[in-house]
Amino acid sequence: MIRVGFIIKDVNSWTGGFNYYKSLLSAIKKLGARREIEPVIFTAASEAAEVSVKLNLGFECAGLSCLEGNSLLSYLGRALKKTIGRNLVFEKALAAHKIDVISHVSNAEAGNGLIMIGWIPDFQHIHLPDMFGPELLAYRNRTYMQMAEKADAVILSSHDAAEDYKNFAPAFAAKGRVLNFAQSVAIDSFDAARHAAIKAAYNLPDKYFYIPNQFWKHKNHIVALKALKALKDSGKTVPAIVFSGLSKDYRDAGYLNELESYINDCGLKANAIMLGLIDYQEVYYLMRYSAAVINPSLFEGWSSTVEECKAIDKDIILSNIKVHIEQAPAKAEYFDPHDARGLAAILERYWFAPPAYDDGALAAKLKAHELKTIEFGENYQKIILSLAGRNKMNKTINGGI
Known about the structure:
Layout: E1 2-7, H1 15-29, E2 37-44, H2 48-55, E3 60-64, H3 72-84, H4 88-96, E4 101-105, E5 115-120, H5 124-127, H6 134-150, E6 153-156, H7 159-168, E7 176-178, H8 192-202, E8 209-211, H9 221-233, E9 241-243, H10 255-265, E10 272-274, H11 280-288, E11 293-295, H12 304-312, E12 316-319, H13 322-327, E13 332-335, H14 340-352, H15 362-400
Parallel strand pairs: 1-2, 1-4, 2-3, 4-5, 5-6, 6-7, 8-9, 9-10, 11-12, 12-13
């Protein structure tokens, strides 16, 4: 069994990232007897219990002091990395847990002789540089290039991201591996009574659109608000849109305030309902009972919102960015993410004739999606096995010289 280490930290600051890891680890678990890899999760000592409970998969979860942001061991590890190019503190932890592969690293850190797999969720900073300060732009460029140089492989979630990777690091293009992810589903059936209770708890209207994106600026919530204003200014019916997601953007602390000011200035408070972060099962309920889900994002690596809608066969209104088209949900309508009036026309049409949703077909849809998640796990395992086999061969060759 090949032991594969994952570093999962700060689980409450990037919900999409945590859900990605949970989906991947769940997919690995579903391989059953075909599984040839054993995940080991590393996290900060203070987060170990929470991470283990939230994953709830039974894999080993090790809390390390060296992964605490302000611990002495963390400072020592970073100092060693800066001076000699290796974090010997973290390497010792990897060796103690008999790790063969360190996967999805973002900072080119691994134990000496271990297989290292990098992960680049997207190249948003290349396409939307104005959303990043100069220091963060430099940091991303530097760490991504270090990863391309030092990793044995770099995982990209889409072919669109893979093209960006080839352009960014052409000398290391051969290391790129496309791994489309299939989101793990937090629900296997819907109950109208529970939806009624959720509506009551959040004081939601009977009919609404739903945007479940974290409140980061590139998620482009503003175009949906401008679409509502366009309908209002035209004297037309103004639908309701429910928004949920973590209400922090580390790059732009004032972003949510800007949205709220726009809502108040345009008199849209009854039509734009902000919930903040909610339970993941509630996300699926709000999706299923919405007139349609909307993802107006300016950029994605591989949209979890799209994958969630595909899993339950839900209609989704999507910005026409390349990766959304690549994901190809069966029930999608596309719009220019800069065209509020174009989106307004689509909202008006869906509002008065929302597509029917077939609860009876859900079981079959989820079964088909289950096969997708297993395929996700199998494809990841193939990457590990191919690298492990090559590493073993190289060791044999080098040992014989």
